[in-house]
Design a protein that fits this description.
Order of helices and strands: EHHEEHEHHEHHHHHHHHHEEEEHHEEEE
Shape: globular
Number of helices: 16
Helix content: 40-55%
CATH superfamily: Cytochrome P450
Structural class: alpha+beta
CATH class: Mainly Alpha
Length: 404
């Protein structure tokens, strides 16, 4: 709920642009400045509020009734302008609509369903890593962080084979669109038509393979729980949630393990730490950096009174590096107890694809621990700029293969 901070008369004001390329390239000093400025900061450039400390970010995520998602999780307010695409039934909805849709996905993505995928996902990870280790020189992003999820997730969802090259560009469009009207958003939307068209078509019942997650969602429409159109939108939401987080999460883990060889040595010594290593990478790099909420009613946050209809920008990446919450927050430590990070969100809008992301992250890191003795960064990584996501476009690596 709301923060117990004392009542303040004025919030600090910042001229920071958290959607600039300079910020994306080195956000951490700016995050620290925002955290130290106060629990709630006014961003002059966008006329919105910012929360960068863990306590306030957690409070906003946990109080959907005061900080709603149905008016958009980007800068645009859906009460004042038309969404650029049909709203997500998960990401851009609140209870009771969200509850109804979430219940279907919770059934489709149950722990039992994940258990059924574990062996297949682990075998696919082992095949990929074995081949890459034999090659030695790889691009950790294209060859591994992107290749692995694309090799298992669309099949699990039941997506058609033809046209899968639209998958990653589609995710980039969606998450760039949450930002302001800058060059990244404009360029993404200008090139979006073929990607949107393919995803919309691929989520139709007749295009989905029997037995996959998509077919199970459409079975809920057959049973009258949702409409056919809602089933297509819900399949689309799962497609969005299950891909980008995983790609950037695996990329973050590779980048961390390459930079911190002592932590990779720990993972090699105990492959059971793979889940924790992935979780710590999500905290440390925070693939999803920011999300907006809109105040649905007057509310007090961090000692500041906010009126109804105010946009609040949550800095998830900053909350995950907040020294008020974490000891040694700027260290990557795979033995850390990472519970409480907000890399997958929190509350009713906790990332719907998190179980899949964790399963894939664990599988690929366990395969690496078995097949690769060291991960060496051999060139300068290239960052991929996005208004919401933090990830790399290229990560030159040398994998040192373990003896057979």
């Amino acid at each position: 709920m709301t923060s117990p901070a004392p009542i303040l008369h004025e919030a600090p004001v910042s001229d920071l642009d958290p959607f600039s390329l300079a910020y994306f390239d080195d956000p951490f000093p700016h995050m620290e400045a925002l955290r130290e400025a106060g629990p709630v900061v006014r961003l002059r450039r966008y006329g919105c509020w910012a929360v960068a400390r863990h306590a306030e970010v957690h409070a906003v995520l946990s109080d959907w009734a005061s900080f709603c998602s149905s008016r958009g999780v980007g800068l645009a307010d859906f009460a004042r302008e038309t969404p650029w695409r049909p709203r997500s039934m998960i990401l851009e909805a609140d209870p009771p609509e969200h509850t109804r849709a979430r219940a279907i996905l919770a059934r489709v993505l149950s722990p039992a369903a994940m258990k059924g995928l574990r062996e297949r996902f682990a075998a696919a990870a082992d095949r990929l890593v074995t081949g890459l280790a034999a090659r030695g020189e790889i691009d950790g992003i294209a060859d591994l962080a992107e290749a692995y999820p694309l090799s298992v997730f669309p099949d699990a969802l039941g997506m058609p084979q033809e046209g899968r090259e639209h998958a990653l560009p589609y995710a980039a469009v969606v998450f760039n669109a949450f930002g302001p009207d800058n060059a990244l958003r404009r360029e993404a939307l200008e090139s979006s038509a073929p990607h949107l068209s393919w995803v919309a078509d691929a989520c139709r019942q007749e295009k989905l393979a029997p037995g996959g997650f998509g077919a199970q969602i459409h079975a809920a429409a057959d049973a009258g729980e949702i409409t056919r159109t809602e089933a297509e939108l819900l399949t689309r939401s799962l497609f969005s949630a299950g891909l980008d987080t995983t790609v950037n999460g695996i990329g973050a883990a590779l980048y961390c393990l390459g930079r911190f060889p002592d932590q990779y040595a720990r993972l090699r010594a105990d492959p059971a730490l793979a889940r924790a290593a992935f979780e710590e990478a999500v905290r440390f790099e925070s693939p999803v950096q920011t999300f907006f909420r809109t105040t649905a009613r007057p509310v007090r946050l961090g000692g500041i009174a906010l009126e109804e209809g105010e946009k609040v920008l949550m800095f998830l990446g900053s909350a995950n590096r907040d020294p008020r919450k974490w000891e040694r927050p700027d260290e990557y430590d795979i033995t850390r107890r990472g519970s409480g990070h907000v890399g997958f969100g929190n509350g009713v809008h906790m990332c719907v694809g998190q179980l899949l992301a964790r399963l894939e992250g664990e599988a690929i890191l366990q395969a690496l621990a078995r097949r690769v003795t060291a991960i060496e960064i051999t060139g300068t990584p290239e960052r991929r700029h996005n208004n919401t996501l933090r990830g790399l476009a290229r990560l030159p690596l040398r994998l040192h293969a373990a003896a057979a």
